[in-house]
Amino acid sequence: MEWLPMLAEAAVDGKGLGLLGAGLGAGLATVGGARGIGNLVASALEGQARQPEMFGRLLTTMLIGAALIEGFTFFALAICFLLSR
Question: Is 27 within a domain?
Fold first, then answer.
């Protein structure tokens, strides 16, 4: 709870709540991206276990999906940091 007075002092300048919101937004975007990629990899491994001959197609699809999720996560992080200024 030592950070509460610092946040209140920074809120007077108008920066404290923006920085807090940017930090929370960046954390949520990162956790969401990690959860999405985790689900994607788990499903791909399950598919590979069921049909090993489909590994190449599953890997390609998984990598494309992971790249899209990472792109969205980086975009969300950039928006969070731009809004904190």
Answer: no
